[in-house]
Amino acid sequence: MLGKKLVTAQKRGETRALCLGLGMVACSMMMYFFIGITIVPFYTKSVWTTETVCKVLKANIKDQVFCPNSKGSEDEEIFPYPCLQVWVNVTASGQEVMLYQTEDTLERNPKCSYIPDKLENSKEVKARIERIASNFKKYQTFPCYYDPGGTQTNVILSRLYPLKGLLFAFLWPTLMFTGGCLIIVLVKISQYVSVLSAWQ
Predict the structure, then answer these.
(1) Cα(61)–Cα(85) distance, integer angstroms
(2) DSSP state, 1?
(3) Most confident region among 21-35, 122-136, 156-170 by mean pLDDT
(4) How buried is residue 72: exposed, middle or buried, by Cβ count under 10 Å (0-12/13-18/19+)?
(5) Cβ–Cβ contacts within 10 Å for residue 119, how many?
(6) Residue 167: partners with Cβ closer than 8 Å, 6 or more residues away
(7) Domain residue extents for the chain
(8) How far is CA 187 from the centre of its chain?
(9) Which residues, 6 or more positions from 171, have their beta carbon under 8 angstroms from its beta carbon?
C-alpha cells in the first residue's frame, strides 16, 4: 500500500516537473519571438555600426522648437524645448557633421541633437539642455558611431540597441530555455531509471 502511494506521488511529481519544463520552454520561445519582432529589426536597420572618436567643434542652443509628432502619437505630446545643436569632427572621415543622441533623435527631429523627455516644468527642460551643452564643451572628445557605408553623414552618440544590449535581451530566454530542457531531460532520465529498476 505504501509502495503504491510512493509510486503515485512520484508520478505526480514527474508530471508537474515535466509541465514546468515544457512551460519554461514555451515561455522562452515566446520571448524569443517578441525580441525578434521588436528589438532585432531596430538593431539590423541601424546603419551607425562603427565606433569612432568625435571632437566637439561647437555646441549651440537655438530658439525653442516644437517636438514633432511621431507616428501614432497625439497632439498633446507636442511640446516646445530649446534646440541643442552639436557639431563634431569625426576622426574616421575628418568631416564636420551634426551629432544626434540616438537614431530615434534624427528620425523625430533632424534639426536638434537632443530631444528631452516631456516635462511640465519648462525651466527643468532648459536647465537640462544647458547642462548637456556645458558637458559637451567640457568633455570635447568622446566615442560616437558613424555609418561606414556613407548613406548617413551624421553621427550618433549612442545606439538604441547596441550589441551588448541585444545579447543581454537574449540572455534571459536562453537561460529559461536551458533550464526547461534540463528539467525535461532529468524527468526522462528519472522515468527511465524507474522503469529499468522495476524491470530488474
Answers:
(1) 6
(2) -
(3) 21-35
(4) exposed
(5) 13
(6) none
(7) 23-36+161-199, 50-158
(8) 36
(9) none
Q: Is 106 helix (H, G, I), strand (E, B) or coil?
A: helix
Please state the pTM of the whole predicted model.
0.70
Residue 8: its pLDDT value, please? 59
β-strand 50-66 against 80-90: which pairing, if any? Answer: antiparallel
CA distance 83 to 80: 9
- The label of the residue with cell 574616421 reads 92
- Give dist(CA 173, CA 24) in Å, integer: 9
Q: How many CB atoms lie within 10 A of CB 117?
A: 10
Average confidence (pLDDT) over 117-125: 75
* Chain centroid to CA 183: 30
Residue with cell 537614431: 103
Three-state DSSP state, 67: coil
Residue 142's DSSP bridge partners are 54
Hey, which residues does 87 pair with through a beta bridge? Answer: 58, 98
Q: Residue 50: which H helix or E strand, with range?
A: strand 50-66
